[in-house]
């Protein structure tokens, strides 16, 4: 689609739609106009569109027809049908993370603690295949909205890998904080899992992406995950957990801690931690150990700005950083949190791909590898950490 002007359509009207819209205001490589939005929640749609002077569409089909690029900013259980519908009309699709997953059997009795992880993996693979097959038959592309890929620190490491020809030997990283405010997050049927998918998807995606980059640089083909060993725990759901009120405890049938050990096709490894057990704000980082350099990517927090106040009341109206419990004392303030997290870079790159045909760094293959690895990880965790082969699609 070799166009200078692209029309964006938003499916969804919640948190993700808002930050997608904000990020679009910083896209400068291409002229973007928002065609409008659609959401099954009429009240939320009205609020989202009226505040931004956007058109509210009455159906998904009408929005797709009016747009060049569709932003899928809905719960992951709805991603597959929206993505397939847009691709069938040859539209590009920016789909939020997680890409897809398993959300139960549709019954009231479904429990995330007891279902067969093997069945969950197979259902997830079917969903992934459906989207990848739709992409193959389409002129549109899947653009996986994993902002970690476009975080400046990760993109700088991509450049270093390409210019040094390094072999990535071991990566380890983490995304953790004190827990989600969303009640949906703690229910498997709505979220598709707990910490492993909700938080682990970010550093895992960055690790897999850098192995893709290394492989393409060295041989022309991405290096992909081969096996995973994983453990999950529900610490805040234990009867003996001592709740002092600092961590969220609203998880009904999902884990609040996950550890992933991934072995790649070339025998190199990555370890990822993800949890709801960490105070002091979001803890997002990835360390890359290679044959000729070592890089530590601090996505959040970082030390670009630090400020101290003896009493949090002085910062009552000051946004400091996501998920911090207090503003008293020293704070690592993020002067532009979206910039460090890669949101604006992500959108600019996606629209360059849509307009000029540039390769999509965070593409459908990456999304497939991430989600296949995670759900193979759930199988491993159910087997108390036994090594499980990652299905490669």
From TrEMBL:
The keyword Oxidoreductase applies. InterPro entries: Gfo/Idh/MocA-like_OxRdtase_N, NAD(P)-bd_dom_sf. Pfam families: GFO_IDH_MocA. GO terms for molecular function: nucleotide binding; oxidoreductase activity. Residues 8-103 form the Gfo/Idh/MocA-like oxidoreductase N-terminal domain. Keywords: Oxidoreductase. PANTHER family: BINDING ROSSMANN FOLD OXIDOREDUCTASE, PUTATIVE (AFU_ORTHOLOGUE AFUA_2G10240)-RELATED, NAD(P)-BINDING ROSSMANN-FOLD SUPERFAMILY PROTEIN-RELATED. Belongs to the Gfo/Idh/MocA family. This is Gfo/Idh/MocA family oxidoreductase. The lineage of its organism: Bacteria, Pseudomonadati, Bacteroidota, Sphingobacteriia, Sphingobacteriales.
